Amino acid sequence: MEMVRQLVPDSLWELFLRVMPVARVRPQGGGRRRADDRGVLAAILFVATSGCTWRQLPPMFGASWQTAHRRFTYWTEARVWAKLHRIILDELGAAGELDWSRCAIDSVSLRAVKGGR
């Protein structure tokens, strides 16, 4: 749980709750208990920042790699990441709470698309 709180502090979680779509519910019911959204978000952030593959995701987040990937896809389709980015820029950027000095982008931080133009 400590890793989850490090990757998803309360302030980020509160912002995320504002853009998170309603959970999909299986019409037939049943199945397993739904994995905790905060733990899944932490797992997604872990994959994004560590460079590990979905299949290498450690079990400490309380969700399988399949669940984390499925939720990532669902949230991507719901434009959660773009909405969260907009909130962060609008609210934290305008308040002067963002440290822009660490936001430099160069060729090292961008991946080239194979076979791209």
From TrEMBL:
It comes from the Bacteria. Pfam families: DUF4096 (PF13340). Residues 9-85 form the Insertion element IS402-like domain. This is Transposase. It comes from Streptomyces roseus.
